[in-house]
Amino acid sequence: MNVLVTAGPTREPIDPVRYLTNRSSGKMGYALASAFAARGHHVLLVSGPTILEVPEAVDFLRIETAAEMHAAVEQSISRQQIVICAAAVADYRPAMVAAQKIKKHDESLILELVRTVDILGSIRQPMGFTGKLIGFAAETERLEEHAREKLLGKGCDLIIANDVSQPGIGFDANENKVLLVYRDHSVSLPQSSKSHLAEELANIILNI
Ligand code: PMT
């Protein structure tokens, strides 16, 4: 099967030397890409900036911004059977990117932010994807409720929800603990390394 995985953070530029980003390391998405490639599937990994090595036997596209990630997904969507969005995409970007480094003239500085494109939310429509669509949900409260809203709102077959307020899991950790949220039920998986979890998740996703 052809599998597309998004991973890592995006960087939204403020000026030539500064950007908005988040704490995603890419570990969860890269582990998933590896798990599918190890099972003989053809994987395209679309990744924001990370320090991780590109997994073996995976096609790799490095992007910086949400808009670039969206363009990469849109360009390859017609070839995919499974899409997994593990990236932590910035929800907002600066409305204007300063051409020169912003100088510290004033005591305060107000940045106007505007919404970025919702990549997962545009995969069913307008992209028209009909394969298996898996999203993540990074939540700090009401994990299952927020995850189910995302599942229904974005037309996913499964949302993999993690509580990113818990120490030792989620962003930049080596381990994760997730709740699998389907339309009519949910299943909790025990905490384990992201690589072990990715093996389990690959088997689960292939069986949906
Ligand atoms: O990278 P690691 O350090 O290993 O950490 C893993 C992780 C915590 C980043 C990962 O497990 C995770 O939860 N990824 C999703 C992070 C996130 O942005 O969640 P969200 O609830 O804000 O977004 C919901 C879904 O929409 C996600 O599938 C996200 O990829 C997608 N999204 C969000 C915003 C946007 N503009 N476009 C999107 O596609």
Secondary structure elements and pairings:
Layout lengths: L1 E6 L4 E4 L2 E3 L6 H12 L3 E6 L10 E5 L3 H11 L5 E4 L6 E3 L18 E3 L16 E8 L3 H11 L4 E6 L11 E2 L1 E4 L4 E3 L3 E2 H13 L2
Parallel strand pairs: 1-4, 1-6, 4-5, 6-9, 9-10
Antiparallel strand pairs: 2-3, 7-8, 10-12, 11-14, 12-13
Helix pairs in contact: 1-4
The structure holds ligand PMT.
Summed up:
The protein is α/β, with parallel strands linked by helices.
Descriptors:
binds ligand PMT, about 210 residues, alpha/beta, 4 helices, two-stranded antiparallel ribbon, Rossmann fold, 14 strands, 8-stranded mixed β-sheet
Outline the structure in words.
The chain is α/β, with parallel strands linked by helices. The chain has a single domain (2-92, 113-206), classed as 3-Layer(aba) Sandwich (Rossmann fold). Helix content is 23%, strand content 28%. The protein is built from four helices and 14 strands. It has helices spanning 27-38, 66-76, 143-153, 194-206; strands at residues 2-7, 12-15, 18-20, 42-47, 58-62, 82-85, 92-94, 113-115, 132-139, 158-163, 175-176, 178-181, 186-188, 192-193. The strands form four sheets. An eight-stranded mixed beta sheet has the order 5-4-1-6-9-10-12-13, with helices on both faces. A two-stranded antiparallel ribbon has the order 2-3. Strands 7-8 form a two-stranded antiparallel sheet. Strand 2 (12-15) and strand 3 form a beta hairpin. Helix 1 (27-38) crosses helix 4. The protein is globular, with a radius of gyration of 17 Å. The chain starts with a strand and ends with a helix. The model has no long low-confidence stretch (mean pLDDT 98). The structure holds ligand PMT. Residues 6, 24-28, 66, 85-89, 91, 116, 118-120, 135-138, 150, 162, 164, 170-172, 194 line the site of ligand PMT. Ligand PMT is lined by residues 6, 24-28, 66, 85-89, 91, 116, 118-120, 135-138, 150, 162, 164, 170-172, 194.
